[in-house]
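BACKBONE STRUCTURE TOKENS:
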Amino acid sequence: MDFLGIENLKARYGEHVVLNDISMTVEKGEIVSLIGPSGSGKSSLLRALVGLLPVESGEVRLNGEIINYRDKQAVKRLRDRLAIVFQQYNLFQNMDVLRNVMLAPMKVKGWPREECEREATALLEKVGLGAKLHVYPDQLSGGQQQRVALARALALRPEILLLDEVTSALDPELVNEVLDSIRLLASEGMTMIIVSHEMAFVREVSSRVSMMAAGSIVEIGTPDEIFQNPKHERARDFVGKILHR
């Protein structure tokens, strides 16, 4: 049984179809990266999975359970199991780093403050920010703020982590410090779906790569299959252009 199963998923913004008959699977511990041109539906797929984009039709199963996106309580429970990190950090500017990471486990999960503080401290140390616990977001670089956002998502102990272009808003010299944190999570077996334009990183870290265009998956395979020998003409065109920049 697939850990995450997506079958014939369709979604639209108004009259514009942004996801058209999407079907894919993700196994536990697997890292699946979504690549493709802007507007191809990569970020829309992540938003649909966490209930931020209404699903028109199709089915999503998480560990065998069919997700009813029309049930608000089911979506709330789903967001305890899937965590998403966006390209914008969305940190609370009036709270220090530690409080930013502690807040959701305390308020959403109702876990004891001492437990949340202990876990938040450990997560911030994991992403290299153990010395910044009581610093405020506006005192941090973009890369540091994104690592706080990553720790905040992990604090909810998600089963799957969704990463939506988490390095695209960063200066080039700050990108690697965020990618290093993701590499660490990958080495620990975290299940992830990643949207990224960092193709060398995608090729390095992914179990499989899904090429999207015009709201559809045109090809999915191992990194070597997608980057060295893509079968679909649209995938060959995209990969050819990005590898020859």
Summary: The mean pLDDT is 93.
